[in-house]
């Protein structure tokens, strides 16, 4: 019996080595959870608490101003084990006796390959399904910034900076067509891959604007994302070896991976069976929206929905719209206050960042000042009268929040791209 157990362990370790060598994306993301986290978890789901987000206030010097007491507002990351990838192969007595069967080459390697592809498909499916807070366009056949991969990466970096995404651990994941377009850029920076996870090194295309560019086979040819290494939380658990299996072993691997390989015998078919399987799950790591209006007493606090829970959004990755001229970005926009408001204010949003309140009847200079006070925005010019033209120094996305306008008939702010 000891001889059988030793062979089972060797099989599992060989499968593990193959898996670690092939997988890319599970080795990239740093939030990883295993059996110890999920044992006893209701609904096979774990919740990871974030610390509350607080901001200091100014009481005023030598004043009797009352202080404002903040409530602690926590948010959570939830990860669920929800899928059970496996591959089963049978070997007949004739095949084992008369054919030249190499177990590692002919059985384990194809089985592990199928499981590793499933791992990546789980992660890619999360990216494909989630609603992104940010998108950027990349069209190599277009004109201007949208055709320049470096400028596309710089725009993604700007969006990450606004969302306070850490500067280290940033990647640009690309499918085959996007990889080809990026690789043809003559100013790609070389990457020292020695500090990268082993599985990523072969897929590195180069580096732009702080993003390490990695080609991922599991992505569609035109699919592409800027991601931070904390964008996806993944879970893998190696199932226990059942008592009915003749031999097998489960091993928790590096890079957050775990598999189990089993061998048993089917007496009805007179054949051996090899099974490689795992439990897996993945979730996008959402973050709470935070009040960015510095004039609000709630500045810096987590925004709560009507249910009293934090409003969550996906800031840790950016979707790349590839192969089509950007239909949303422009350096020139017009705005017009409509509905004849008699008082109140509105806000303009540039790439998602809100200005301070702008008076309903603000002058061109006041509108320009509000825009140029935004982080990363300079040199904006405002012209016109009732319909004002905003001219930026780079392509941006402009929107408006007219909730603060008062009076008139359904006051609003119309925003039009030129």
Could you tell me the number of beta strands?
Answer: 26
Question: Whole-Å distance between the termini?
Answer: 77 Å
Beta-strand content bin: 25-35%
- Helicity range: 10-25%
Rounded to an integer, what's the Rg over CA atoms?
A: 27 Å
Main β-sheet: number of strands, strand sense, barrel status? 6 strands, mixed
**Tally of DSSP helical segments:** 8
Query: Major sheet: order of its strands?
Result: 5-17-9-6-8-7
In short:
It is built from 8 helices and 26 strands.
Characterization of the model:
It is a single chain. This protein has 418 residues and is of the alpha+beta class. It folds into 2 domains: 1-49 and 73-327; 329-418, Alpha-Beta Plaits (2-Layer Sandwich), CATH 3.30.70. The chain contains 8 helices and 26 strands. The chain has a 6-stranded mixed β-sheet with strand order 5-17-9-6-8-7. Strand 7 (204-208) and strand 8 form a beta hairpin. The radius of gyration is 27 Å and the shape is elongated.
Topology:
Elements (H helix, E strand, L loop, with lengths): L1 H21 L2 H4 L2 E3 L1 H4 L6 E5 L26 E5 L5 E7 H6 L4 H27 L5 E4 L10 H14 L7 E5 L1 H8 L20 E5 L2 E5 L8 E5 L3 E6 L9 E6 L5 E9 L4 E7 L1 E6 L2 E2 L23 E2 L3 E6 L7 E9 L4 E8 L2 E2 L3 E2 L4 H9 L8 E4 L2 E10 L1 E4 L3 E2 L5 E6 L1
Parallel strand pairs: 1-10, 5-17, 6-8
Antiparallel strand pairs: 2-3, 4-13, 6-9, 7-8, 9-17, 10-14, 11-12, 12-13, 15-16, 18-23, 18-26, 19-20, 19-21, 19-24, 19-25, 22-23
Helix pairs in contact: 1-5
């Amino acid at each position: 019996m000891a001889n059988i157990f030793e062979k089972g362990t060797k099989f599992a370790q060989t499968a593990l080595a193959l898996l670690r060598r092939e997988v890319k994306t599970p080795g990239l993301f740093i939030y990883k959870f295993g059996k110890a986290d999920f044992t006893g978890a209701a609904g096979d789901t774990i919740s990871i608490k974030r610390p509350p987000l607080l901001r200091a206030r100014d009481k005023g010097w030598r004043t009797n101003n009352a202080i404002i007491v903040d409530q602690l507002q926590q948010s959570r990351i939830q990860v669920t084990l929800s899928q059970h990838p496996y591959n089963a192969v049978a070997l007949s007595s004739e095949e084992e006796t008369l054919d030249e069967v190499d177990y590692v080459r002919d059985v384990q390697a194809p089985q592990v390959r199928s499981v590793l592809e499933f791992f990546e498909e789980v992660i890619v499916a999360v990216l494909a399904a989630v609603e992104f807070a940010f998108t950027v366009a990349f069209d190599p056949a277009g004109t201007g910034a949208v055709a320049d991969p470096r400028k596309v990466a710089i725009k993604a970096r700007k969006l990450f900076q606004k969302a306070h995404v850490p500067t280290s651990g940033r990647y640009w994941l690309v499918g085959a067509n996007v990889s080809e377009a990026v690789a043809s850029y003559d100013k790609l920076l070389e990457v020292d891959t020695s500090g990268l996870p082993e599985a990523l090194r072969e897929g590195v295309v180069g580096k732009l604007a702080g993003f390490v560019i990695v080609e991922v086979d599991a992505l569609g040819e035109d699919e592409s994302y800027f991601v931070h290494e904390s964008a996806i939380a993944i879970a893998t658990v190696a199932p226990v070896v059942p008592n009915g299996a003749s031999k097998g072993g489960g091993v928790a691997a590096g890079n957050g991976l775990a598999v189990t390989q089993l061998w048993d015998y089917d007496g009805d078919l007179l054949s051996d069976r090899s099974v490689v399987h795992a439990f897996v799950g993945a979730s996008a790591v959402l973050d709470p929206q935070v009040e960015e209006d510095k004039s609000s007493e709630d500045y810096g606090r987590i925004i709560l929905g009507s249910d009293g829970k934090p409003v969550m959004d996906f800031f840790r990755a950016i979707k790349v719209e590839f192969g089509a001229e950007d239909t949303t970005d422009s350096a020139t926009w017009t705005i017009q206050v409509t509905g004849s408001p008699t008082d109140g204010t509105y806000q303009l949003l540039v790439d998602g960042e809100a200005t301070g309140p702008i008076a309903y009847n603000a002058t061109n200079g006041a509108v320009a000042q509000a825009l140029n006070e935004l982080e990363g925005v300079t040199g904006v010019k405002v012209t016109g009268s009732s319909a004002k033209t905003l001219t930026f120094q780079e392509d941006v996305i402009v929107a408006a929040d007219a909730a603060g306008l008062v009076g008139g008939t359904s006051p609003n702010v119309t925003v039009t791209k030129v």
